[in-house]
Amino acid sequence: MRQSPDAFADLRDKIDDGDKAAWSKALDEGRKVFDRFHADMGKWAEKLGVDLDAEDLSDTLRRQERKLTDRLTQLYRDAGNHKKALDALHVRIIQAFKVLQDMVKHEADAAKVKERLALDIKEIAAALDTWADKIVAKVAPEPVDVAGGARVSKVSEVMKAQLDIDHGVTVSEIVDKEGVLAKAGVKVHDIVLKLNDKDITGRDGLRTQLTGLKPGDAFTLKILRDGKQQDLSGTR
Known about the structure:
about 15% strand, alpha+beta, 7-stranded antiparallel beta sheet, Pdz3 Domain, 3 domains
């Protein structure tokens, strides 16, 4: 084995200094040197009781921890007021893999490490799935006449004159009872005048302002109901 580095150095010199014929011969010699070197490694591993093909459990654990942490990082982007819960889940991941690495460090049985790893991954992945449903669940786009879960339309000029207003949208239907507007207390026939003290001049304006809110952001609404203005508040 001591001769292997010298042997490879000699082959490197032949490749650097020789022509194509020399390269082909050097390649054949290199394969023979490699085979001898690999055979010697196998003999020493057998004497030492080492399995050269065995997976490195520490690397496996680091790889699995990184996968779970990457998923968690993606959830943080839209977590809003759920960040504390995700912080707790992050601590759970760190603690779980510290225990597993300690087991490997103290030469625990590989089968036991893998069994615990599988259970931890199942538990943590299930928690990540639950939070993914809450935070980044994919919702079908709202119809063009719907904003914040309510079907709205621009207040007509006649109605503006009768109510002495110059802006706002009227709510004709609550499409989603869990929508932003419904949860804030908006009802059918209400006229939404302002969102966070900004005039609502049409459906697109209302949708744009709602879209600009991040999950967990608080907001205020000024509405007209039964001829009287009222203030409502909600959370995105």
